[in-house]
Specification:
The chain is mainly beta and 97 residues long. The chain has one domain. Helix content is 0%, strand content 31%. The chain has no helices and seven strands. The strands form two sheets. A four-stranded antiparallel β-sheet has the order 3-1-2-6, with no helix packed on it.
């Protein structure tokens, strides 16, 4: 699961990320843009987990993982949290179901 500082999020399958050697240059997980912002966090989750997304203004959102769509690498994802001007996602945590 990947969440960006602008409240966007998506699930990706682990199989989409190939193992790289020492000389590997990395893989794109999320396309950073004005709309998405930078990546705020990445978690390994299970289908029956829930996540907590936390903003810098104290907003807390609890979301069942099954409600977040699985998308391919390089996509931005869907809006998980509505944020006000100057607000951004600063953390996330998993609640095991």
């Amino acid at each position: 699961l990947t969440v960006t500082e602008r409240g966007m999020g998506k699930r990706s399958k682990v199989e989409e990320f190939r193992v790289q050697s020492r000389g590997g240059k990395g893989l794109i997980n999320v396309r950073v843009s004005e709309r998405s912002g930078y990546v705020a966090g990445v978690l390994q989750i299970a289908e029956d987990d829930e996540i907590f997304v936390i903003s810098n203004k104290g907003k807390l959102l609890r979301i069942p993982v099954r409600n977040i769509p699985v998308q391919r690498r390089g996509t931005v994802g869907v809006k998980l949290m509505e944020l006000e001007a100057g607000e951004k996602v600063v953390g996330m945590a998993t609640f095991k179901g």
